[in-house]
Structure formats: C-alpha cells, structure tokens
Amino acid sequence: MGGHGRGRAAYIVLEGIDGAGTTTHSKLLAEKLEKLGYCTCLFEEPSRGDVGIVIRKILSQGPFDQRLLSLLFAADRLMLRSSIEGCLDRGCLAISDRSWISSLAYQSYDDFPDPAPIEWIYVVNRYAMRPDILVFLDVEPAIAYRRLGRRKGSRELPERLQALRGLARRYEHVLKLIEGIIPLVVRVKGSINGCERPVEAVSRDILTVVLAALRYWEHSKA
Fold first, then answer.
1. What's the DSSP call for residue 92?
2. Which of 58, 73, 84, 221 is deepest in the core (most CB within 10 A)?
3. Can you give the residue ranges of the Thymidylate kinase-like domain (predicted)?
4. 171 occurs within a structural domain
5. Is 1 within the bounds of a domain?
6. Is residue 2 included in any domain, yes or no?
7. 141-152 and 157-177 helices cross at what angle (nearest 10)?
8. Is 43 exposed, middle or buried (0-12, 13-18, 19+ CB in 10 A)?
C-alpha cells in the first residue's frame, strides 16, 4: 500500500482461532492506518508464494501431518521475511494476518493428526520475524463456529466446535509461553457473553491500541 513512512516502523500481527476475524481486521487496520498517514504493507499466512500454495493445497485436502505443516509454514515465513524487512526498512508498518504463533497453537494441538512438540515448532521458526505488536482476537468458539458456517457452509457441529474450543485453550497456553518474547501483546474482545461485537467496534479497539503503542514508541525516541 502507498503513502510515506510516519514514525516508527513496526511489525503488527493479528492472531485468533478460525473465525476470529484476523483476515477482516488486518485489512481494516491497514486501511485505517493509511488514512491516518501511515505507510502499510499487508501480509497473510500462508502466503501466495510457491510454498504457501503447497500449504493451501494440503489444508484443503486434509487430514494432514502437523509436523510436515510446521516445516512448510516455517519455510514460507522464511521466504516472507525479506518482504517484511523491506517494508520495515522503508519506514512502513507491516501488518500480518497470522504468524508463527499460529503454528505454536495449531500444529501442537493434540486432536490434530501427528501433532508436533511445541518446543520443536518454536525452534524451526527461529528465523521467522518476531512481532512488535500482537493483537489476539478473543472470540468465543461458538461464535467463531457460526461465522465459519455462514462463510463456508455447515459442518458437523460437535466435531468442529470441539476443535475450536480446543484451539482456544491452546492459544491461552501459547500466549503465556510467549510472555516477554514480544514487546506488546493485547487482547481484543470479538464477542462478549455469546454475542458478536460489531465489526466496527472491534476494529476501533484494535486501531486504538496500535496507535497508542506507535505514539508511545515515537515519543520515547523523540
């Protein structure tokens, strides 16, 4: 995306279970920051590159070996790294729909085929970019399930909902593990007490915390 760099370059990642809204809100965040004068670059995982295409094909077929996926995702991130660094070098904000943190949650989840040890996943992703800001979209699994049903058609409720609940618990474990590794981790509620929050309200909350972090860093270096 266009525009001139403004202030501190930063790598911003949005994470959450399937149906949390990471794709929607990464795009909205980039659009809103552009309107405020920031230069942004938008990334997604898996990427649209050669390795990302292979990952997408495997994911569409399933079931799949999580150890294999861990390695493929790590390779995809390594290929993305130069693009992210190039964005940051231009003084822009790199905004990503998911990161290696997704692998820590998904590829280690015990109910998926051949899960990988979380320590091993961390090691194979040692060269992946570390976010400056991690935004975790906290959406209740039942809400996420309903969203996925609207988007991709109906699924077997007990199986799919059980997986989403398990992944939500896995993310809680992962978020504790990465404390101190990432400068800023913020949780934004996408639903409350079984009710979806409006997209615009969630988007506004994300923008608020990101701007607060950016302005703090800008002023601290002034």
1. P
2. 73
3. 14-176
4. yes
5. no
6. no
7. 120
8. buried
As a whole number of angstroms, the distance between CA 92 and CA 84 comes to 10
Q: Is residue 66 part of a domain?
A: yes
Q: Is the pTM of this model over 0.85?
A: yes
Output phi, psi for 25, to 5 deg. Answer: -80, -25
The single residue listed with the structure tokens 């609207």 is: 150
Tell me the angle at which helices 66-89 and 50-61 cross, rounded to the nearest 10 degrees: 140
Return phi, psi of residue 162, to 5°.
Answer: -60, -40
- Rounded Cα–Cα distance for residues 137 and 101 (Å): 13
CA angle centred on 200, ends 195 and 204, rounded to 5°: 110
Q: Which domain holds residue 21?
A: 10-220
Confidence of residue 74 (pLDDT cuts 50, 70, 90): very high
- pLDDT, tens digit, 9 for 90 and up, residues 110-133: 999 899 999 999 999 999 999 999
Helix boundaries (H) for the chain? 22-35, 50-61, 66-89, 100-106, 118-124, 141-152, 157-177, 199-220
- Cα-flanking dihedrals φ and ψ of residue 80, to 5°? -75, -25
